[in-house]
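pinging the channel bc i need a second pair of eyes. not urgent but kinda urgent?? the chain im working w is below, pasted from the shared doc
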Amino acid sequence: MENITAKIKDGMLYLMANGRIDSANSAQTEALITKLVDENKGLGIIIDADELQYISSAGLRVVLRLRKSHPELKIINAAAEVYEIFEMTGFTEMIPVEKAYRKLSVEGCEAIGQGANGMVYRLDPDTIIKVYLNPDSLPDIHRERELARRAFVLGVPTAIPYDVVKVGTGYGSVFELLNATSLAKLIKANPEKLDEAVAMYVELLQTIHGTTVNPEDMPDMKAIVLNWADFLKDYLPADKWQKLHDLIDAVPVEHRMLHGDYHTKNVMLQGGEALLIDMDTLAQGNPVFEFASVFNACKGFYLPYTGDMNAECFMGYTVQTSFDIWDKTIRLYFGTDDEARLAEIEDKAKLVGFTRLMRRLIRRQGLETAEGRAQIEYYKNEIETLVEKIDSLIF
């Protein structure tokens, strides 16, 4: 059995090493590598050591000779034992060598949350893991870790991942959250404590929005929302689309932190403290953009709704509870029980929220089904009605 196979990806030749490379097979291995390299001239070379169990001095000399002809050579996915060989022999000082990621399975684990980019599972009472949907997610993982670190340094209570692991063909981030539970689960188990839960929810949200960030550190949410609106240009009447675009464009640029996907499954309770998770949507901007996502999570996804209000929604509690959370959240956050003021706030959040949902559904081939077309038409009618009555998105 050959212990070197090859694949080409993104203009690179990957030499997939497996088993052992030692004095017994080093000559055969080198001949095979030479053949594969000659057949793929002009490509950079990466040795993927994911399945490599051992490499002797004879195997190391094969790698050295390959490096002389290909100075850009690097080694990835080296298991701890193999990495130690490279390190002890000084190879890590000559060639970039990346350790393999620890492998974990989420089979049988409780799913405690889902975001746009991944699923969150509980591995054990002390540990949770976010598994990314995109198998090529390493850049996203490192970006999210950096965003979480920045938020933590600025005083926002958040869980920071301490490890990146391999999960099947993809990757995940591991967090230590000792006996933590999501706010969604707390609300489901203790509906009588809804007001207390919403108070924690709003307090954390106000902490986030009260945090000023460096303009270079986080994406501009206004630019993202303008992209949502621009997508709808061919789906809305020209005058209505222009008004929508102008309303968003008129929102002043602000450097206030926004979570971007704030809902009760992304708030974890640990020792009485509320911690924020799922930080890949972290951004900066005006809170109206945040409340659009809060509205969608609590209410927008269920409109128009004609089913049983006591049916369980995505968050695990009833649809009616989800609607109540929205109502209690805006009353507490804005400090008002004025129904006209509350209706104004909801309309502005709904306009931005439905802009996102209409775009989302169209991009997910919603126009190809009768149900999807009906939902898109509902969003369209609501957007057209709202842009007629709204003159500013500022709360």
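so The first strand starts at residue 4 and ends at 9. and The CA atoms of residues 137 and 171 lie 7 Å apart. — does that match what u expected or am i reading it wrong
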